[in-house]
Design brief:
Shape: flat
Structural class: mainly alpha
Distance between the termini: 51 Å
Oligomer: single chain
Number of strands: 0
């Protein structure tokens, strides 16, 4: 179903560049000048630690991609369910600490 063209229609609200300023700078003051301190919670530290280094096994990804493409990929429903339950339990434990 085609709704219609949106070309050349004026915006409903002003575009961000259309704002007028009074010449003063807006936003937070420079952290070095304000003496602001930051505290990182234990939960944030744990999440950063558990997130890993972002690396992955490219060969494994390639093998799985090829098996999906040729129709031979068979997901293990039991393993998937076990991982989902383990992740849910971990989240619940973190929530109630």
């Amino acid at each position: 179903m085609k709704i219609g063209s949106i070309d050349n229609k004026p915006p409903i609200a002003p575009v961000a560049g259309d704002r007028k300023t009074n010449g003063s700078t807006q936003g937070a003051p420079d952290a070095a000048r304000s003496g602001a301190t930051v505290a990182i919670s234990a939960e944030a530290t744990a999440l950063a630690r558990d997130s890993g280094d972002g690396s992955f096994d490219a060969a494994k990804v390639d093998r799985i991609s090829r098996s999906i493409q040729n129709g031979s990929f068979k997901p293990d429903a039991g393993a998937i369910a076990d991982k989902l339950i383990a992740n849910a339990q971990e989240l619940l434990i973190r929530t109630y600490r």
